[in-house]
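re: ur question from earlier - yeah i can do the single chain one, its not a big deal. heres the input i used so u can compare w yours
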Amino acid sequence: MLQWVWPVPLFLVGWFAPESRSHLPLTLEIGSKLRLGPYYLVRAGRTDEVEKTLHRLASPGHYSDLMIKQQIALMTHTNEQEKIEAKNGSYAECFKGSNRRRTEIVGMAWTTQLFNGSHMSSYAILL
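and the output i got, formated as tokens:
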């Protein structure tokens, strides 16, 4: 498995290299054929396509018509709630109230990984 890891970045660099723009029309053609996810369609206001997308993504017979309507209603409600939350949100809220404690806990968990000495033993030759 590991032997297939390095060709992926190498392929991406070759694909996006400025000298090789002959594949751009093929990329645009493939990109136009990709289908969009149901949450994107709800956010874009294209709820008529959401039903077809949910039927396509689920196994046959999984969704009844009522379940599809409920799922679309839940997606629409979630989208509206996210809009409301995003309107009042900012990164400054990470350092206020109970969010400050959460930020401190996560920050300490992250820095503990750095200061436990493993990076010193791993990169001892470079130090």
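Helices lie at 7-15, 24-33, 38-43, 47-57, 65-88, 97-115, 118-122. not sure if urs matches, ping me
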